[in-house]
Amino acid sequence: MPETLWGLPVHPLIVHLVVFLVPLTVLAALVVAVWPRARRLLAPWVLGVATIALITIPLATESGEHLEEQVSRSSLVEEHAELGDTLLPLMAALWVVLAIIVAVDFYVRRKTDGPPSWTRVVMPVAMVLTVGASAVTGVQVVRIGHSGAKAVWSDVGTGQRG
């Protein structure tokens, strides 16, 4: 992966994709989990966006590790890196419960003789897990973004003017 693009570090460019797609996925997953009509119309699309978000997270992590080697070491950068490492498993968990919702909903709609009894257990559990995974993932992406902003902007304004 290149370290720069058009003279800019790749990490902030990729991170903007992550901080757009992950919250979008979180909000859309909440809608899909609690609103049956939205689930029927949007769930496969939300899973697609979640897939793209899931793919961008390792790219952001890798580019962040390259950038970390280029900047001076600080506790703020280390905190951001540690928090950043937590996003992939959280987003993966959200992706899994979304995939379950999509699969069960697809199966139920294709069944001509009515939904099997197991779907009356699996779907509510998947819905609750989706709400929980969305909440945790949403909070964590904000924490990661805030720590990154602190790491970048913490010393702005402390230098002397030329």
UniProtKB/TrEMBL annotation:
InterPro entries in the cross-refs: Cit_synth/succinyl-CoA_lig_AS (IPR017440), DUF2231_TM (IPR019251)
Keyword Zinc-finger: no
Transmembrane segments: 13-35, 42-61, 87-108, 120-142
The protein's name in its UniProt record: Putative membrane protein
Domain DUF2231, first and last residues per copy: 7-155
Pfam family membership, one: DUF2231
UniProt keyword annotations, A-Z: Membrane, Transmembrane, Transmembrane helix
